[in-house]
Structures are given as structure tokens and as C-alpha cells.
């Protein structure tokens, strides 16, 4: 029996440490070399486990515990499976076989045996099956075992010899061939390729055991019939990518094979594997019925699944493209063929009808779209303290600010610096449908994994004015300004913004040096026009006018913020803002508050 494999689709956002994956490998650069996988047991969440490369994974999956890949960890970032599941379409050439059984080495249509596997074991004495999964239920009136496995995407079940359609002459029709020409995985809602996800989202192709089967695949950029049902077969493809038999090289669009930067990485370790056959020997193509139950055919030992990562960019997609899914084919798909030929699964020149086990033995399972869940926002200089980002107000990091993401236990999950020019930040490592997160704006930079119970902090002379959370997201202002409380769903959380303000200052006027006399003054001290040595107001040098009193003060116009903003101001206009409790001066562009009597030197 050939080994089985796994194909997973991942979607996420760019993170700076993720560049190694554009080289189509799961090995990371720098000091981190781990590639973790989280396996979920739907029937018992307590059995969820995490493991790393080079370590065996202890488990007891026997019974009826199907396993799904719910997340992976790359460079310390959690990629999580989303709610979407692909629609799976099996493309067969119904004329691929010859009439009658045992007619040479070409599989006949009704002997495509539905060969698949499940993790488990067989009691050779009692002939009982102790399998992780039972026989897959009916998903479609045809190809029900394969469609069920591909649709449900269990990591510990799969298809054997997916594209093989040749067999050695046998007496019982037990072909080791599934006789499939092409398999399409199509998503009802396409992924829009952006500058944020083009290098950190993509597909992971994996194989159980040593990689020993070539495979061809291509991203689907458009469904030509204009619907997302997958009923059509004339798709618009991206690059046609082929892996060689040991998955150490790839070819793009028929070009020369080039070396991959590293070998594939361990993802999951299986205990043992049972291979099954469904024996259907009548003359009707793919009419699998309940009476044709699969039976255990072979038992393999412990197997390990290895994988490679291909980003959207590696697939040949560009910013602005849509990603609808992928089409997969055997390793004998012509090297010079392109998207038009990939569509033509009924053409035996493109999809040979005698694909052997060397070219067609790969086995695929799709495990859904994965997301690197992000929370993004910005920090701006809220000069007028109104809590709204006005057009003239600049973005800022106040000379050195970070955003810190903590969970309900105040464990630091991620730290992101605020960009000095754009004011933007981006945090990740969140989980879906989780509450209790906090985003803290601070000058501190705590270590990821540490406990951080401190509040917001800003550089000297800066104060928090607003937490401008987007009402369309599940986030609210925290108990204190500079802290946003966050609950996630299944989409990125955006526009979680912070307003801060620099408290402007003034210094005493310079009085030394040569100055001009003041020619105009008002006094309540009875010195106006007095002809003595005081020579008032001329003695009050350096001003246009002098005011003098020991019992009165100078009061400028007192206006509310609304009244002030209704003025037609000119540069230098000055009022007292009674809402903001500050001396407000128009600088030619906007009103600014002056309230701090000291200045940093």
C-alpha cells in the first residue's frame, strides 16, 4: 500500500518573522525551529495535545475519536482553523477503464476500489477492527467514502493512491487504484489576496511517511461560470506547481526543477494505520451502496505526517487576486501543460488513463482555511482632546510606545511597537471566540509569556484622551484610558485606536537685553500720566500695552469648544476654552491648548 498524505489550507496575515515560508519550507529562520500542531478531539477536549519536532506524540486514539487539525504554531504565532469548510469535487474520466475485469493493467471504472485508511489496529485473532474512525457516512450518492473523508478533513483518516488508475492483473478485482483524475477543493467565499496575507497565508501539503510520490497542484483564481458552487470545471488557474517524488524540488509552469530550501517537517505522528477497500464489482460506475461496506485490507505500523508550506505568493497569486481553492492532480500531469490543460481532466493527454502508482500514489485531505487572527489600530495626537481623529491631527508613537496584548490571566501574548510615522500597530496570537483580552498602550516592553498587570503609561508630558474603539467590533474602553478590553469572534478585530495628547508648555518671557519702552498702559494704581522716576508705562519695556492692578485680572474671551470651533479664526487668535479649561490659541491650522507651565529642556 502507498502512504497517505494531508493537504491543509492556511490563511493569515503577514508577520515579520514569517519570511522563511516563502521558501516553501516549514523550517523557520533564526533560533526558532519548531512547528507545532494542535490536535482536537471533538468528543473530549481534555485530550487536546501539542507536540514539537523530534518528539514522539503519546496518544491513545482508539475507539471512535476522529481528530482534526485545529491550529498550528509558526514562529510562536497561532494559526487557527476558521469556520469555512471546502466543497470537494472528485473529477473522474468515466471512460477510463476497459470492459470486463482483469483486462490488463488499466483499472476498469467499477473497480475503483475506494481505498482509504483510518488510524487504528486489527485484532488478527478475532478479526475485529479497533479503529479511530468508523466507516465514513454518506455524503454523496457516489464516491461516498472518499468524499466523506475529504469533506470532514480528519487528520487521522485519508485516501490511498488518489490518482493511481493502473493495476496488476488480479483475480478478485482488488485494484490498488482509486482511478481519480483531479480533485478540487473550492471555498464558497474566496480569499482576497492583499499585501498583508500574500506571504503568510497559503497551503500546507503533507505526506505520511517518507515522501515518495510526486504531485501537481494549482491555485484557483476564478470560477469561470460566475458562481462559487464548484459545479463548473473551467477554472482560471495560477501557477502549475509540481513536486518531485521525494519532495525536495519543485517545478513551476513546466520550468526546471529547483531545490527547496529545506526538507519537510514533522506535523503529526500516527500510532498505526488500517487500509480499507470497498469492493464494488458490478457494472455501474461509482454506485457505492450500503451493501458494499469497506473491509480492512492491510495494517501498517506507526506513521508520521510531514509537510511543506506554500504561501499565496509561492502559488503565483498577486495582490488583488482571489483564492477560491486548489486543484490537485497526479505527478504525470504534463510538464508543459498550463491552466487550460488542468481544466481538461477528460483529456487523456493531460490526465493519462494509465497513471501508475509512482505518479498517482499521493493521497490528499483538505483541512480548511486557517487564520492568524489579528487586532489592529493606531495612535493619534488628539490635539483638541475631542476623542475623534480630525484630519489635521497627526499619527504618533509619542517617541516610543508599544501595545501589549494580555489574556484574562494577564499573560502577555504579543507585543507590538507603534509605528512612528503611521501610528499603526498589529497584534496577534489570539484565539477565536474568546473574551478577557486587553490591549494596553504603554512605554514598557514586557516579555511574551510573562505576567503583566501594569496599566497604561505614556512618555513625559503626554496624556491619554480617548480609546476610540470601532463599534462594529467586540471591544470596549477599559476601566482606564489607554486600555481596551477585547473579545474575539472569527474575524480580525480592526480600528482599535488610542488618542493621546502632548500637554504644551510655556516659559517666562525674556527680559534681558535692549528693549523698547511700552507706550500704552492701563493702571488701577493711580500712576497713569505720573511724572516721576517710575516713568510708567514706559518703564514696562518690551510690550505694546501694559495692564496694572493688584485687585483685578485680565480676562480674555471665554467660549465653549462649540463656540470656539464656530469662529472664523486667524493665526494667533486666543480664547479661553471653558470645556477644556485651557488657554486655546489658533496656530493657523488648528486650536491648541496651553495649560502646562513647565517645559522639558
Task: Show unreliable segments.
Answer: 1-6, 10-64, 96-104, 137-141, 283-291
Helix percentage range: under 10%
Amino-to-carboxy terminus distance: 78 Å
Which descriptor suits the 3D outline?
elongated
Q: List the quaternary state of the chains.
A: single chain
> Could you tell me the number of beta strands?
38
Please describe what this structure looks like.
Mean pLDDT is 74; it is low at 1-6, 10-64, 96-104, 137-141 and 283-291. The strands form eight sheets. Strands 6, 10, 12, 13, 14, 15, 16 and 21 form an eight-stranded antiparallel sheet that branches. A five-stranded antiparallel sheet has the order 3-2-4-5-22, with no helix packed on it. Strands 7, 8, 9, 18 and 19 form a five-stranded antiparallel sheet that branches. It has four helices and 38 strands. By secondary structure, the protein is mostly beta strands. Helices cover 4% and strands 34% of the residues. Strand 36 and strand 37 form a beta hairpin.
Amino acid at each position: 500500500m502507498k502512504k497517505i498524505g494531508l493537504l491543509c489550507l492556511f490563511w493569515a496575515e503577514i508577520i515579520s518573522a514569517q519570511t522563511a515560508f516563502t521558501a516553501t519550507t516549514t523550517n523557520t529562520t533564526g533560533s526558532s525551529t519548531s512547528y507545532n500542531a494542535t490536535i482536537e478531539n471533538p468528543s473530549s477536549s481534555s485530550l487536546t495535545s501539542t507536540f514539537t519536532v523530534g518528539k514522539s506524540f503519546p496518544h491513545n486514539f482508539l475507539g471512535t475519536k476522529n481528530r482534526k487539525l485545529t491550529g498550528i504554531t509558526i514562529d510562536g504565532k497561532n494559526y487557527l482553523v476558521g469556520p469555512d469548510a471546502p466543497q470537494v469535487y472528485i473529477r473522474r474520466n468515466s471512460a477510463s477503464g476497459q470492459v470486463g475485469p482483469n483486462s490488463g493493467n488499466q483499472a476498469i471504472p467499477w473497480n475503483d476500489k475506494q481505498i482509504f485508511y483510518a488510524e487504528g489496529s486489527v485484532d488478527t485473532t478475532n478479526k475485529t477492527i479497533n479503529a479511530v474512525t468508523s466507516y465514513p457516512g454518506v455524503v454523496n450518492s457516489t464516491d461516498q467514502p472518499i468524499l466523506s473523508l475529504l469533506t470532514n478533513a480528519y487528520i487521522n483518516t485519508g485516501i490511498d493512491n488518489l490518482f493511481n488508475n493502473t493495476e496488476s492483473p488480479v483475480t478478485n478485482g482488488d485494484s490498488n487504484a482509486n482511478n481519480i483524475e483531479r480533485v478540487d477543493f473550492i471555498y464558497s467565499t474566496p480569499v482576497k489576496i492583499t499585501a498583508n496575507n500574500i506571504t503568510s497565508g497559503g497551503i500546507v501539503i503533507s505526506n505520511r511517511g517518507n515522501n515518495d510520490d510526486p504531485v501537481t497542484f494549482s491555485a484557483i483564481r476564478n470560477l469561470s461560470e460566475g458562481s462559487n458552487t464548484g459545479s463548473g470545471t473551467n477554472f482560471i488557474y495560477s501557477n502549475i506547481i509540481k513536486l518531485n517524488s521525494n519532495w525536495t524540488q519543485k517545478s513551476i509552469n513546466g520550468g526546471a526543477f529547483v531545490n527547496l530550501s529545506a526538507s519537510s517537517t514533522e506535523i503529526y505522528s500516527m500510532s498505526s494505520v488500517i487500509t480499507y477497500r470497498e469492493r464494488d464489482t458490478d457494472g455501474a460506475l461509482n454506485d457505492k451502496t450500503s451493501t458494499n461496506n469497506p473491509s480492512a485490507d492491510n495494517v501498517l505500523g506507526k506513521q508520521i505526517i510531514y509537510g511543506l508550506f506554500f504561501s499565496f505568493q509561492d502559488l503565483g497569486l498577486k495582490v488583488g487576486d482571489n483564492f477560491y481553492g486548489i486543484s490537485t492532480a497526479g505527478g504525470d500531469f504534463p510538464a508543459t501543460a498550463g491552466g487550460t490543460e488542468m481544466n481538461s481532466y477528460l483529456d487523456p493527454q493531460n490526465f493519462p488513463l494509465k497513471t501508475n502508482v509512482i505518479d498517482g500514489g499521493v493521497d490528499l485531505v483538505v483541512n480548511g482555511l486557517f487564520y492568524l487572527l489579528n487586532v489592529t489600530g493606531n495612535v493619534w495626537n488628539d490635539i483638541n482632546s475631542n476623542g475623534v481623529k480630525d484630519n489635521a491631527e497627526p499619527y504618533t508613537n509619542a517617541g516610543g510606545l508599544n501595545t501589549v496584548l494580555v489574556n484574562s490571566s494577564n499573560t502577555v501574548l504579543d507585543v507590538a511597537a507603534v509605528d512612528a510615522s503611521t501610528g499603526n500597530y498589529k497584534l496577534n496570537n489570539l484565539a477565536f471566540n474568546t473574551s478577557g483580552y486587553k490591549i494596553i498602550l504603554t512605554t514598557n516592553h514586557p516579555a511574551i509569556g510573562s505576567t503583566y498587570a501594569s496599566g497604561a503609561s505614556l512618555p513625559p508630558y503626554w496624556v491619554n484622551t480617548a480609546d476610540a474603539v470601532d463599534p462594529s467590533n467586540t471591544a470596549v474602553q477599559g476601566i482606564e484610558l489607554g486600555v481596551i478590553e477585547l473579545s474575539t469572534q472569527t474575524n480580525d478585530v480592526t480600528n482599535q485606536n488610542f488618542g493621546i495628547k502632548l500637554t504644551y508648555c510655556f516659559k517666562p518671557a525674556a527680559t534681558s537685553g535692549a528693549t523698547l519702552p511700552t507706550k500704552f498702559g492701563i493702571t488701577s494704581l493711580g500712576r497713569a500720566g505720573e511724572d516721576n522716576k517710575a516713568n510708567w508705562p514706559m518703564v514696562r519695556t518690551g510690550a505694546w500695552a501694559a495692564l496694572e492692578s493688584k485687585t483685578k485680572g485680565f480676562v480674555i474671551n471665554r467660549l465653549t469648544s462649540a463656540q470656539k470651533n464656530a469662529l472664523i479664526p486667524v493665526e494667533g487668535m486666543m480664547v479661553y476654552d471653558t470645556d477644556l479649561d485651557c488657554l486655546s490659541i489658533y496656530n493657523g491650522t488648528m486650536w491648541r491648548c496651553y495649560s502646562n507651565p513647565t517645559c522639558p529642556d
